Amino acid sequence: MGKLVVLTLLGAVLALIGERLVAFRQRMNASRAVEPVDLPNCHLIEGLENGSEDIDILPNGLAFISSGLKYPGMPNFASDEPGQIFLMDLNEQNPRVQALNISDGFDKASFNPHGISTFIDKGTMRISSASQGLDSLYCMVGNPIKKGIGEMNTDQGLKWDDGTRLFQTPVLILPRTSVKSENSVLRKQIPTLSLVHSSSYFTMKTDHTVYLYVVNHPHMKSTVEKFKFEEQQRSLVHLKTIKHELLTSVNDIVVLGPEQFYATRDHYFTNFFLVLLEMIMDLRWTYVLFYSPKEVKVVAKGFSSANGITVSLDKKYIYVADVLAQNVHVLNKRGNWDLTQVKVIQLGTLVDNLTVDPDTGDILAGCHPNAMKLLIYNPEDPPGSEVLRIQDVLSEAPKISTKYANNGSVLQGSSVASVYHGKLLIGTVFHKALYCLF
Ligand SMILES: *[C@@H]1O[C@H](CO)[C@@H](O)[C@H](O)[C@H]1NC(C)=O
Ligand SMILES: *[C@@H]1O[C@H](CO)[C@@H](O)[C@H](O)[C@H]1NC(C)=O
Ligand SMILES: *[C@@H]1O[C@H](CO)[C@@H](O)[C@H](O)[C@H]1NC(C)=O
Ligand SMILES: *[C@@H]1O[C@H](CO)[C@@H](O)[C@H](O)[C@H]1NC(C)=O
Ligand SMILES: CC(=O)N[C@H]1CO[C@H](CO)[C@@H](O)[C@@H]1O
Protein backbone atom coordinates (compact mmCIF):
# COMPACT_ATOMS: atom_id res chain seq x y z
CA MET A 1 0.00 0.00 0.00
CA GLY A 2 2.79 2.36 1.07
CA LYS A 3 4.77 1.50 -2.03
CA LEU A 4 1.78 2.23 -4.24
CA VAL A 5 1.38 5.68 -2.69
CA VAL A 6 5.09 6.36 -3.16
CA LEU A 7 4.98 5.15 -6.75
CA THR A 8 1.88 7.23 -7.51
CA LEU A 9 3.50 10.29 -5.96
CA LEU A 10 6.72 9.67 -7.83
CA GLY A 11 4.78 9.27 -11.07
CA ALA A 12 2.90 12.50 -10.42
CA VAL A 13 6.12 14.37 -9.66
CA LEU A 14 7.82 12.99 -12.78
CA ALA A 15 4.80 13.88 -14.89
CA LEU A 16 4.81 17.39 -13.48
CA ILE A 17 8.54 17.78 -14.11
CA GLY A 18 8.08 16.34 -17.60
CA GLU A 19 5.29 18.76 -18.34
CA ARG A 20 7.36 21.63 -16.96
CA LEU A 21 10.37 20.57 -18.99
CA VAL A 22 8.35 20.62 -22.20
CA ALA A 23 6.98 24.05 -21.30
CA PHE A 24 10.50 25.18 -20.37
CA ARG A 25 11.90 24.09 -23.74
CA GLN A 26 9.10 26.05 -25.38
CA ARG A 27 9.84 29.13 -23.30
CA MET A 28 13.50 28.85 -24.28
CA ASN A 29 12.45 28.77 -27.97
CA ALA A 30 14.53 25.60 -28.17
CA SER A 31 13.57 24.66 -31.73
CA ARG A 32 13.60 28.12 -33.23
CA ALA A 33 15.75 28.76 -36.30
CA VAL A 34 16.84 32.38 -36.74
CA GLU A 35 15.80 34.23 -39.87
CA PRO A 36 18.71 36.56 -40.58
CA VAL A 37 18.19 40.33 -40.61
CA ASP A 38 21.34 42.15 -41.68
CA LEU A 39 22.49 45.69 -41.21
CA PRO A 40 24.56 47.01 -44.11
CA ASN A 41 27.47 48.61 -42.28
CA CYS A 42 28.73 46.38 -39.50
CA HIS A 43 32.07 45.11 -38.34
CA LEU A 44 33.25 43.16 -35.33
CA ILE A 45 35.05 45.27 -32.76
CA GLU A 46 38.72 44.43 -32.49
CA GLY A 47 39.81 43.57 -28.95
CA LEU A 48 36.41 42.41 -27.71
CA GLU A 49 36.20 38.65 -27.99
CA ASN A 50 35.29 37.38 -24.57
CA GLY A 51 31.99 39.05 -23.86
CA SER A 52 30.53 42.54 -23.71
CA GLU A 53 27.56 41.90 -21.47
CA ASP A 54 26.54 45.46 -20.92
CA ILE A 55 27.13 48.75 -22.68
CA ASP A 56 26.36 52.22 -21.40
CA ILE A 57 26.93 55.29 -23.55
CA LEU A 58 27.40 58.75 -22.05
CA PRO A 59 25.65 61.73 -23.67
CA ASN A 60 29.05 62.78 -25.08
CA GLY A 61 29.49 59.49 -26.96
CA LEU A 62 31.90 57.68 -24.65
CA ALA A 63 30.76 54.07 -24.35
CA PHE A 64 31.55 51.86 -21.35
CA ILE A 65 31.57 48.14 -22.06
CA SER A 66 31.71 45.45 -19.37
CA SER A 67 33.56 42.32 -20.46
CA GLY A 68 34.57 38.93 -19.17
CA LEU A 69 31.47 37.85 -17.27
CA LYS A 70 31.72 34.42 -15.71
CA TYR A 71 28.28 33.15 -14.85
CA PRO A 72 27.07 29.67 -13.84
CA GLY A 73 25.61 27.84 -16.81
CA MET A 74 26.99 30.25 -19.40
CA PRO A 75 29.94 29.50 -21.66
CA ASN A 76 33.12 31.50 -21.16
CA PHE A 77 36.17 31.53 -23.38
CA ALA A 78 38.52 33.27 -20.97
CA SER A 79 37.73 31.72 -17.63
CA ASP A 80 41.16 32.49 -16.17
CA GLU A 81 41.13 36.17 -17.01
CA PRO A 82 39.55 38.73 -14.69
CA GLY A 83 36.82 40.94 -16.16
CA GLN A 84 37.48 44.40 -17.51
CA ILE A 85 35.73 47.62 -18.39
CA PHE A 86 36.47 48.97 -21.84
CA LEU A 87 35.98 52.46 -23.20
CA MET A 88 35.11 53.38 -26.77
CA ASP A 89 34.78 56.92 -28.14
CA LEU A 90 31.92 56.85 -30.65
CA ASN A 91 32.83 60.31 -31.93
CA GLU A 92 35.91 58.89 -33.60
CA GLN A 93 35.84 57.90 -37.25
CA ASN A 94 37.02 54.38 -36.48
CA PRO A 95 36.37 53.90 -32.78
CA ARG A 96 38.63 51.47 -30.97
CA VAL A 97 38.30 49.96 -27.54
CA GLN A 98 40.67 50.64 -24.71
CA ALA A 99 40.72 48.86 -21.35
CA LEU A 100 40.26 51.24 -18.45
CA ASN A 101 42.86 51.20 -15.73
CA ILE A 102 41.38 50.53 -12.30
CA SER A 103 42.88 52.17 -9.22
CA ASP A 104 44.81 50.16 -6.67
CA GLY A 105 43.05 49.00 -3.52
CA PHE A 106 40.40 47.13 -5.46
CA ASP A 107 40.61 43.37 -5.94
CA LYS A 108 41.04 43.29 -9.72
CA ALA A 109 41.80 39.56 -9.80
CA SER A 110 38.23 38.65 -8.78
CA PHE A 111 36.57 41.38 -10.87
CA ASN A 112 33.59 39.79 -12.63
CA PRO A 113 31.53 42.64 -14.10
CA HIS A 114 27.93 42.20 -15.18
CA GLY A 115 25.37 45.05 -15.63
CA ILE A 116 26.69 48.61 -15.59
CA SER A 117 25.15 52.05 -15.30
CA THR A 118 26.60 55.54 -15.38
CA PHE A 119 25.51 58.48 -13.33
CA ILE A 120 26.54 62.04 -14.08
CA ASP A 121 26.46 64.25 -11.02
CA LYS A 122 25.07 67.47 -12.39
CA GLY A 123 24.44 68.73 -8.90
CA THR A 124 20.72 68.89 -9.49
CA MET A 125 18.92 68.44 -6.24
CA ARG A 126 15.30 67.83 -5.70
CA ILE A 127 14.03 69.29 -2.50
CA SER A 128 11.26 67.10 -1.26
CA SER A 129 8.20 68.36 0.50
CA ALA A 130 9.46 66.59 3.60
CA SER A 131 12.43 68.92 3.68
CA GLN A 132 10.49 72.11 3.16
CA GLY A 133 12.11 73.74 6.12
CA LEU A 134 13.05 76.27 3.53
CA ASP A 135 12.55 79.28 5.70
CA SER A 136 15.33 78.19 7.97
CA LEU A 137 17.47 77.86 4.92
CA TYR A 138 18.59 81.27 3.94
CA CYS A 139 21.49 81.71 1.63
CA MET A 140 24.44 79.92 0.26
CA VAL A 141 26.90 81.61 -2.02
CA GLY A 142 30.15 80.19 -3.23
CA ASN A 143 33.07 82.33 -4.33
CA PRO A 144 33.50 85.16 -4.92
CA ILE A 145 30.80 86.39 -2.58
CA LYS A 146 29.94 84.43 0.49
CA LYS A 147 26.85 85.76 2.02
CA GLY A 148 26.05 82.99 4.40
CA ILE A 149 25.67 79.31 4.18
CA GLY A 150 22.64 77.26 5.01
CA GLU A 151 22.67 73.66 5.94
CA MET A 152 20.26 71.42 4.16
CA ASN A 153 19.31 67.80 4.23
CA THR A 154 17.60 66.93 1.02
CA ASP A 155 16.05 63.54 0.40
CA GLN A 156 19.32 62.67 -1.26
CA GLY A 157 21.10 62.99 2.04
CA LEU A 158 23.28 65.95 1.05
CA LYS A 159 24.59 68.09 3.82
CA TRP A 160 26.18 71.50 3.36
CA ASP A 161 28.17 72.96 6.18
CA ASP A 162 29.51 76.43 6.61
CA GLY A 163 32.84 76.75 4.91
CA THR A 164 32.37 73.73 2.69
CA ARG A 165 32.60 74.69 -0.92
CA LEU A 166 31.14 71.86 -2.86
CA PHE A 167 30.55 73.64 -6.12
CA GLN A 168 32.85 75.31 -8.59
CA THR A 169 30.40 77.99 -9.63
CA PRO A 170 28.68 80.45 -7.34
CA VAL A 171 25.56 78.96 -5.90
CA LEU A 172 22.68 80.54 -4.12
CA ILE A 173 19.84 78.97 -2.25
CA LEU A 174 17.08 81.05 -0.80
CA PRO A 175 13.65 80.46 0.58
CA ARG A 176 11.02 80.83 -2.11
CA THR A 177 9.59 84.01 -0.64
CA SER A 178 12.77 86.04 -0.80
CA VAL A 179 14.19 84.69 -4.00
CA LYS A 180 12.95 87.37 -6.38
CA SER A 181 14.34 90.44 -4.64
CA GLU A 182 17.61 89.01 -3.38
CA ASN A 183 18.23 87.14 -6.57
CA SER A 184 18.08 90.22 -8.75
CA VAL A 185 20.46 92.09 -6.43
CA LEU A 186 22.90 89.22 -6.42
CA ARG A 187 22.65 88.73 -10.15
CA LYS A 188 24.06 92.18 -10.65
CA GLN A 189 26.95 91.40 -8.36
CA ILE A 190 27.65 87.96 -9.79
CA PRO A 191 26.76 87.81 -13.46
CA THR A 192 27.71 84.14 -13.67
CA LEU A 193 25.45 83.15 -10.80
CA SER A 194 24.13 79.72 -11.73
CA LEU A 195 20.89 79.57 -9.92
CA VAL A 196 17.66 78.40 -11.42
CA HIS A 197 14.72 78.59 -9.14
CA SER A 198 11.51 76.70 -9.71
CA SER A 199 8.93 75.43 -7.28
CA SER A 200 10.79 72.27 -6.38
CA TYR A 201 14.19 72.29 -8.05
CA PHE A 202 17.41 74.11 -7.49
CA THR A 203 19.71 73.47 -10.39
CA MET A 204 23.38 74.07 -9.94
CA LYS A 205 26.25 73.56 -12.27
CA THR A 206 29.09 71.43 -11.04
CA ASP A 207 32.01 69.78 -12.74
CA HIS A 208 29.86 66.90 -14.02
CA THR A 209 31.64 64.05 -12.34
CA VAL A 210 30.89 60.74 -14.03
CA TYR A 211 30.33 57.74 -11.81
CA LEU A 212 30.24 54.20 -13.13
CA TYR A 213 28.32 51.61 -11.14
CA VAL A 214 29.14 48.01 -11.90
CA VAL A 215 27.37 44.85 -10.77
CA ASN A 216 30.23 42.59 -9.72
CA HIS A 217 30.28 38.87 -8.93
CA PRO A 218 33.54 38.30 -7.07
CA HIS A 219 33.69 34.62 -6.11
CA MET A 220 30.12 34.32 -7.48
CA LYS A 221 28.67 36.70 -4.89
CA SER A 222 26.92 39.95 -5.79
CA THR A 223 28.14 43.45 -5.01
CA VAL A 224 27.76 46.83 -6.65
CA GLU A 225 30.99 48.74 -7.19
CA LYS A 226 31.03 52.50 -7.43
CA PHE A 227 33.83 54.04 -9.52
CA LYS A 228 34.70 57.59 -10.44
CA PHE A 229 35.65 57.96 -14.09
CA GLU A 230 38.80 60.01 -14.77
CA GLU A 231 38.44 60.95 -18.42
CA GLN A 232 41.95 62.37 -18.91
CA GLN A 233 43.71 59.38 -17.36
CA ARG A 234 41.23 56.93 -18.90
CA SER A 235 40.93 55.27 -15.53
CA LEU A 236 38.41 54.24 -12.90
CA VAL A 237 38.94 55.16 -9.28
CA HIS A 238 37.24 52.70 -6.97
CA LEU A 239 35.17 54.53 -4.36
CA LYS A 240 33.14 51.90 -2.57
CA THR A 241 31.65 48.43 -2.56
CA ILE A 242 27.93 48.26 -1.86
CA LYS A 243 26.64 45.06 -0.25
CA HIS A 244 23.25 44.18 1.16
CA GLU A 245 21.48 40.93 1.95
CA LEU A 246 18.80 41.77 -0.61
CA LEU A 247 21.46 42.48 -3.26
CA THR A 248 21.73 38.81 -4.19
CA SER A 249 22.01 37.37 -7.68
CA VAL A 250 22.02 40.90 -9.08
CA ASN A 251 21.89 41.18 -12.84
CA ASP A 252 21.58 44.82 -13.80
CA ILE A 253 21.21 48.25 -12.28
CA VAL A 254 20.05 51.68 -13.30
CA VAL A 255 21.43 54.53 -11.22
CA LEU A 256 19.16 57.52 -10.69
CA GLY A 257 20.90 59.47 -7.95
CA PRO A 258 24.35 59.78 -6.38
CA GLU A 259 23.57 56.76 -4.20
CA GLN A 260 20.18 55.65 -5.47
CA PHE A 261 19.59 52.83 -7.89
CA TYR A 262 17.23 50.10 -8.96
CA ALA A 263 18.66 46.61 -9.32
CA THR A 264 17.23 43.41 -10.78
CA ARG A 265 17.59 40.02 -9.17
CA ASP A 266 17.63 37.37 -11.90
CA HIS A 267 17.31 34.23 -9.77
CA TYR A 268 15.93 33.52 -6.33
CA PHE A 269 18.38 30.70 -5.65
CA THR A 270 22.14 30.93 -5.92
CA ASN A 271 22.87 27.21 -6.17
CA PHE A 272 23.08 26.31 -9.86
CA PHE A 273 20.93 23.16 -9.56
CA LEU A 274 18.22 25.06 -7.69
CA VAL A 275 18.42 27.87 -10.25
CA LEU A 276 17.72 25.35 -13.00
CA LEU A 277 14.82 23.96 -11.00
CA GLU A 278 13.56 27.49 -10.40
CA MET A 279 13.63 28.21 -14.13
CA ILE A 280 12.02 24.91 -15.09
CA MET A 281 9.27 25.21 -12.48
CA ASP A 282 8.83 28.91 -13.42
CA LEU A 283 8.56 29.99 -9.79
CA ARG A 284 8.52 33.75 -10.55
CA TRP A 285 10.28 34.66 -7.33
CA THR A 286 12.58 37.35 -8.67
CA TYR A 287 12.19 41.08 -8.21
CA VAL A 288 13.34 44.67 -8.65
CA LEU A 289 15.03 46.29 -5.70
CA PHE A 290 15.49 49.93 -4.78
CA TYR A 291 18.72 50.79 -3.03
CA SER A 292 19.71 53.93 -1.17
CA PRO A 293 21.99 54.25 1.85
CA LYS A 294 18.91 54.85 4.01
CA GLU A 295 16.46 52.39 2.57
CA VAL A 296 16.55 49.14 0.63
CA LYS A 297 13.27 47.62 -0.52
CA VAL A 298 11.63 45.37 -3.07
CA VAL A 299 9.63 47.61 -5.41
CA ALA A 300 8.29 45.14 -8.01
CA LYS A 301 8.05 41.35 -7.92
CA GLY A 302 6.66 38.30 -9.67
CA PHE A 303 9.24 38.13 -12.49
CA SER A 304 10.36 34.77 -13.91
CA SER A 305 13.83 36.25 -14.23
CA ALA A 306 14.19 40.02 -13.99
CA ASN A 307 17.10 41.04 -16.16
CA GLY A 308 17.93 44.32 -17.93
CA ILE A 309 16.59 47.51 -16.40
CA THR A 310 16.65 51.05 -17.69
CA VAL A 311 14.83 54.36 -17.44
CA SER A 312 12.83 56.40 -19.95
CA LEU A 313 14.31 59.67 -21.25
CA ASP A 314 11.98 61.72 -19.02
CA LYS A 315 12.99 59.53 -16.04
CA LYS A 316 9.33 58.81 -15.25
CA TYR A 317 9.21 55.17 -16.34
CA ILE A 318 11.35 52.16 -15.57
CA TYR A 319 11.62 49.39 -18.14
CA VAL A 320 12.39 45.88 -16.90
CA ALA A 321 13.15 42.90 -19.13
CA ASP A 322 11.84 39.54 -17.90
CA VAL A 323 14.02 37.19 -19.94
CA LEU A 324 12.15 33.92 -19.28
CA ALA A 325 8.68 35.47 -19.62
CA GLN A 326 9.86 37.09 -22.89
CA ASN A 327 8.47 40.51 -22.06
CA VAL A 328 9.24 44.07 -21.04
CA HIS A 329 7.47 45.60 -18.06
CA VAL A 330 6.77 49.31 -18.15
CA LEU A 331 6.59 50.64 -14.61
CA ASN A 332 5.74 54.05 -13.26
CA LYS A 333 8.22 55.53 -10.79
CA ARG A 334 6.53 57.00 -7.74
CA GLY A 335 7.75 59.73 -5.43
CA ASN A 336 8.77 57.22 -2.77
CA TRP A 337 10.66 55.16 -5.42
CA ASP A 338 7.93 52.48 -5.45
CA LEU A 339 7.05 51.14 -8.90
CA THR A 340 3.56 50.52 -10.25
CA GLN A 341 2.98 48.51 -13.38
CA VAL A 342 1.69 50.38 -16.43
CA LYS A 343 1.86 47.62 -19.04
CA VAL A 344 3.66 44.52 -20.21
CA ILE A 345 4.94 44.29 -23.78
CA GLN A 346 5.21 40.69 -24.98
CA LEU A 347 8.13 40.11 -27.37
CA GLY A 348 8.13 36.37 -28.18
CA THR A 349 11.87 36.14 -27.63
CA LEU A 350 14.16 36.02 -24.59
CA VAL A 351 14.95 39.66 -23.89
CA ASP A 352 18.13 40.41 -21.97
CA ASN A 353 19.24 44.03 -21.60
CA LEU A 354 17.44 47.23 -22.50
CA THR A 355 18.66 50.64 -23.56
CA VAL A 356 16.88 53.76 -24.70
CA ASP A 357 17.71 55.63 -27.92
CA PRO A 358 18.61 59.15 -26.73
CA ASP A 359 17.18 60.67 -29.92
CA THR A 360 13.79 58.94 -30.04
CA GLY A 361 13.11 57.36 -26.64
CA ASP A 362 12.60 53.98 -28.34
CA ILE A 363 13.68 50.87 -26.44
CA LEU A 364 16.43 48.73 -27.94
CA ALA A 365 16.51 45.17 -26.66
CA GLY A 366 19.35 42.67 -26.93
CA CYS A 367 17.66 39.24 -27.17
CA HIS A 368 18.43 35.52 -27.20
CA PRO A 369 16.48 33.98 -30.09
CA ASN A 370 17.20 30.46 -28.90
CA ALA A 371 18.24 30.36 -25.26
CA MET A 372 18.55 26.56 -25.10
CA LYS A 373 21.63 26.88 -27.32
CA LEU A 374 23.02 29.31 -24.78
CA LEU A 375 22.53 26.85 -21.91
CA ILE A 376 23.87 23.89 -23.87
CA TYR A 377 26.68 25.46 -25.90
CA ASN A 378 27.71 23.78 -29.11
CA PRO A 379 30.21 25.67 -31.32
CA GLU A 380 28.86 23.77 -34.36
CA ASP A 381 25.33 25.02 -33.73
CA PRO A 382 25.82 28.19 -31.69
CA PRO A 383 23.24 30.49 -30.10
CA GLY A 384 22.21 33.40 -32.30
CA SER A 385 21.66 37.10 -31.77
CA GLU A 386 18.71 39.41 -32.14
CA VAL A 387 18.08 43.12 -31.63
CA LEU A 388 14.54 44.50 -31.40
CA ARG A 389 13.36 48.09 -31.45
CA ILE A 390 10.18 49.04 -29.55
CA GLN A 391 8.64 52.30 -30.71
CA ASP A 392 5.80 54.27 -29.09
CA VAL A 393 6.37 52.42 -25.82
CA LEU A 394 3.54 54.16 -23.96
CA SER A 395 0.96 53.99 -26.75
CA GLU A 396 -1.86 51.42 -27.02
CA ALA A 397 0.07 49.42 -29.59
CA PRO A 398 3.85 49.75 -29.35
CA LYS A 399 5.57 48.89 -32.65
CA ILE A 400 8.11 46.09 -32.46
CA SER A 401 10.62 45.56 -35.26
CA THR A 402 13.71 43.38 -35.69
CA LYS A 403 16.79 45.48 -36.38
CA TYR A 404 19.32 42.70 -36.49
CA ALA A 405 19.23 38.91 -36.35
CA ASN A 406 21.98 36.36 -36.90
CA ASN A 407 22.15 32.59 -36.41
CA GLY A 408 25.47 32.75 -34.58
CA SER A 409 27.70 32.65 -37.64
CA VAL A 410 28.73 36.28 -36.90
CA LEU A 411 27.56 37.07 -33.40
CA GLN A 412 26.55 34.71 -30.57
CA GLY A 413 24.40 35.39 -27.53
CA SER A 414 23.60 39.10 -27.93
CA SER A 415 22.75 40.65 -24.58
CA VAL A 416 22.58 44.38 -25.29
CA ALA A 417 22.21 46.91 -28.08
CA SER A 418 22.98 50.53 -27.50
CA VAL A 419 22.63 53.38 -29.98
CA TYR A 420 24.31 56.77 -30.22
CA HIS A 421 23.35 59.13 -33.06
CA GLY A 422 23.24 56.56 -35.84
CA LYS A 423 25.85 54.22 -34.41
CA LEU A 424 24.86 50.91 -32.90
CA LEU A 425 26.86 48.68 -30.59
CA ILE A 426 25.71 45.11 -30.03
CA GLY A 427 27.24 43.29 -27.07
CA THR A 428 27.16 39.62 -26.12
CA VAL A 429 27.34 37.53 -22.95
CA PHE A 430 30.62 35.79 -23.80
CA HIS A 431 31.31 36.35 -27.50
CA LYS A 432 32.31 39.30 -29.70
CA ALA A 433 30.79 42.73 -30.16
CA LEU A 434 29.47 44.38 -33.30
CA TYR A 435 29.69 48.03 -34.38
CA CYS A 436 27.16 49.14 -36.98
CA LEU A 437 26.05 52.31 -38.70
CA PHE A 438 22.35 52.37 -38.05
C1 LIG B 1 39.88 35.95 -25.02
O1 LIG B 1 40.22 34.82 -24.25
C2 LIG B 1 41.17 33.98 -24.87
C3 LIG B 1 41.34 32.77 -23.98
O2 LIG B 1 41.76 33.13 -22.71
C4 LIG B 1 42.48 34.74 -25.07
O3 LIG B 1 43.41 33.92 -25.73
C5 LIG B 1 42.22 35.99 -25.89
O4 LIG B 1 43.38 36.76 -26.00
C6 LIG B 1 41.11 36.81 -25.28
N1 LIG B 1 40.82 37.90 -26.17
C7 LIG B 1 40.75 39.15 -25.78
C8 LIG B 1 40.53 40.15 -26.84
O5 LIG B 1 40.87 39.50 -24.62
C1 LIG C 1 47.41 51.97 -14.14
O1 LIG C 1 47.41 52.35 -12.79
C2 LIG C 1 48.55 51.93 -12.08
C3 LIG C 1 48.36 52.25 -10.62
O2 LIG C 1 47.39 53.22 -10.42
C4 LIG C 1 49.77 52.59 -12.68
O3 LIG C 1 50.91 52.15 -12.00
C5 LIG C 1 49.87 52.22 -14.15
O4 LIG C 1 50.95 52.89 -14.75
C6 LIG C 1 48.60 52.58 -14.87
N1 LIG C 1 48.66 52.07 -16.23
C7 LIG C 1 48.33 52.80 -17.28
C8 LIG C 1 48.41 52.11 -18.59
O5 LIG C 1 47.97 53.95 -17.19
C1 LIG D 1 9.20 31.67 -28.46
O1 LIG D 1 8.49 30.95 -27.47
C2 LIG D 1 7.27 31.53 -27.04
C3 LIG D 1 6.71 30.68 -25.92
O2 LIG D 1 6.64 29.35 -26.30
C4 LIG D 1 6.32 31.68 -28.20
O3 LIG D 1 5.13 32.31 -27.79
C5 LIG D 1 7.00 32.51 -29.27
O4 LIG D 1 6.17 32.61 -30.40
C6 LIG D 1 8.32 31.88 -29.68
N1 LIG D 1 8.98 32.79 -30.59
C7 LIG D 1 9.29 32.46 -31.85
C8 LIG D 1 9.87 33.55 -32.69
O5 LIG D 1 9.12 31.34 -32.28
C1 LIG E 1 23.92 30.41 -40.45
O1 LIG E 1 23.74 31.25 -41.58
C2 LIG E 1 24.79 31.18 -42.50
C3 LIG E 1 24.56 32.19 -43.60
O2 LIG E 1 23.59 33.09 -43.27
C4 LIG E 1 24.88 29.77 -43.07
O3 LIG E 1 25.97 29.67 -43.96
C5 LIG E 1 25.08 28.80 -41.92
O4 LIG E 1 25.04 27.48 -42.39
C6 LIG E 1 24.04 28.96 -40.84
N1 LIG E 1 24.43 28.18 -39.69
C7 LIG E 1 23.59 27.41 -39.02
C8 LIG E 1 24.15 26.68 -37.85
O5 LIG E 1 22.42 27.32 -39.32
C1 LIG F 1 19.11 48.69 -19.45
C2 LIG F 1 19.77 48.50 -18.20
O1 LIG F 1 19.35 49.00 -17.24
N1 LIG F 1 20.90 47.80 -18.14
C3 LIG F 1 22.03 48.23 -18.79
C4 LIG F 1 22.00 47.73 -20.19
O2 LIG F 1 22.81 48.48 -21.00
C5 LIG F 1 22.54 49.86 -20.96
C6 LIG F 1 23.32 50.58 -21.97
O3 LIG F 1 23.87 49.79 -22.91
C7 LIG F 1 22.81 50.42 -19.61
O4 LIG F 1 22.46 51.77 -19.59
C8 LIG F 1 22.05 49.71 -18.60
O5 LIG F 1 22.55 49.98 -17.35
From TrEMBL:
Statement: the UniProt record of this protein carries the keyword Hydrolase: yes
Domain of life: Eukaryota
Extent of the signal sequence: 1-15
Cofactor(s) annotated in UniProt: Ca(2+)
Keywords: Calcium, Disulfide bond, Glycoprotein, Hydrolase, Metal-binding, Signal
Co-factor note (free text): Binds 2 calcium ions per subunit.
Catalyzed reactions per annotation: an N-acyl-L-homoserine lactone + H2O = an N-acyl-L-homoserine + H(+); a phenyl acetate + H2O = a phenol + acetate + H(+)
Primary enzyme class: hydrolase
UniProt-listed Enzyme Commission number(s): 3.1.1.2
Family: Belongs to the paraoxonase family.
PANTHER family, sorted: PARAOXONASE (PTHR11799), SERUM PARAOXONASE_LACTONASE 3 (PTHR11799:SF14)
Record-given protein name: Paraoxonase
Gene encoding the protein: PON3
